[in-house]
Amino acid sequence: MNNTIIYLIGHYGVGKLTIAKALCAATDARLFDNHLANNVIFSLVRVDGKTPLPERVWDMIGIIRDQALLAIEELTPPDASFVLTNCLLESDPGDRATYDRVESLAARRGSDFLPVILRASDAAHAERIPSPDRAERLKQTDAEGAEQKRRAHEILRIDHPNRLDLDTTHLPPTEAARLIIEHAERLA
Length: 188
Hints:
Blueprint: E1 4-10, H1 16-27, E2 30-32, H2 34-45, H3 56-75, E3 82-86, H4 93-109, E4 112-119, H5 122-128, H6 132-136, H7 143-152, E5 164-167, H8 173-187
Helix pairs in contact: 1-8, 2-3, 3-4, 5-7
């Protein structure tokens, strides 16, 4: 891939980070996982994956995210490709603004932009959410709370001609990465 921004979007536990790592290994793209920004703050307030977060946390994380996006725009080579991950919800106006910033970043860089919506079955979520790896990365580990959020808040509705939808329930990460790369190659 050359000058491509892939944005993996989905609820907790769909495999965003795992697929992002597979994409980066296969393409030499650079990873900006949402938890790179989140964990700067999460580690300081001692997030446990179950206790609700103070609302102000998201304002602080937004500043870190904005600086990372600015670094992508101003400090990276024009041919560099990136994989970004996030759980963006239709009910959160800040999430729409975040998506719009990334889409605008791609336009300013002249990058191919590929939003990918990832979904998984309830059973897959229930199995993946409480994993020790997620706890170690300060991610949501409360399967019941994650299910309630999934049922109450739909993923951001994205109307983009390059959008790709994948169900990761039985899709190995390397296969998901291959499908995304093939889609990106068709767009280039």
